[in-house]
Automatic annotation (TrEMBL):
It comes from Helobdella robusta. It is found in: Cytoplasm. It comes from the Eukaryota. The keyword Nucleotide-binding applies. The gene is 20210349. This is non-specific serine/threonine protein kinase. GO terms for cellular component: cytoplasm.
Amino acid sequence: MTSFIKKIMRPKTKVYGKQGSVKESQAMNITAPTDFKQVLHITFKDGQIVGLPDVWGEWLSASDISLEEQKKNPEAVYTALKTYESSVKYKDHQKFMLQNDNSTNLSASEDLESKRKSSDDNDPKKTTSNGKSPNQPASKEGAPKNIQCRRNNKAPDKMTEEEVMQAFRDLVSKDDPLKKYDIKQKVGSGASGTVCVATDRQTNHAVAIKKMDLSNQPKKELIITEIEVMKQHQHENIVNFLDCYLVEGPGSRELWVAMEYLEGGALTDVVMETILKENQIAGITKRCTDALAYLHSQEIIHRDIKSDNVLLGMNGEVKLTDFGFCAQITQDRDKRNTMVGTPYWMAPEVVSRKQYGYKVDVWSLGIMVIEMIEGEPPYLNETPIRALYLIASNGKPQIKDKSKLSPDIVNFLDKCLEVEVEKRATCKELMSHPFLGLPVDMTSLRQNILAAKEAASKSF
């Protein structure tokens, strides 16, 4: 065997024949192994999980998952670690976790507001029309060239830089935005762009303009997806897209996206700083459910429902935004298995990396209702890995003080937060739920918005 190995590893040599001729002897080439899988043998020894990859062990040590919890539900521990691993593989655009790679070193007692805003300034694409920058979740797959093309089972190829720029040129208006809009003050900024309030010179209406430096956008396909969804799907409870422009100068390329300006800002500020009445929660939820029912009827899953992605107007408007992670589902591709969404709002089937459909939005909607009740989603003070573990282990989260809630809102939450997907309600079914029928004057939200703005100003 040893001589055989030496023989096949021998390099090219010169061999002299009987007539003195010289010929080359070609050594056999050995290629790397293909189509192999790494099998993990994870067991418990002396009350601890052993057999984990080194980096998993480090994550687990910093996750705040106790040894008792690990022993009680090792499958949930594995699920949480596997899901977290998928997120950090795509850390370049910081869309999944609220923290960066060092997040596992954060203590469970970290300040709530800093957790919610730890990545606020990293991505102006996510900046809301009032200049706020909500937290970023991550996607395992990039956006397709055109969402209308997702009608086959093969994942789209990654777009080249040239294809991306051509897609932008096909989307944008040829008009000069500086002639159409009078740019006012900057209301938000991030690592790669800014958000400004502008006035339409013809109508004198205020608009929000996102200015994105394309050289600093690692996932340009997501921006294309978001624009296409907003452009093609108009609804009274979805932020109204106006136009977009490619502004190219010496050594720079900016994408300007003009959209409806909602002065009230993100729902997050209101739920964190004020206590909403139950009928106000019902009114907000009804409009979000209506928007989701529309998107689902158009075979689109939003995949990132949370208070950060709901914008409020000063006159009671409630609108969904941020469609960078939406996905189109058709009859020949009616389930998805990509891992996207922010962990605290994530449905159990997504955490468990199972195929999923429209009802992931329904679960996230239920978590957002808990946000409006309690001021934060369940497990927000936990590390991301422990939060994933608790979702996988517990399923439906517990409400802190259910006794203060009406039977209607409790029943609504039960229908949204049903772990068994088949039993979970659809948005269309939820629209006829008694909870969403509570009478409410939506203009009452103005007082909550003003109170939230005042509280936020005092914190700086």
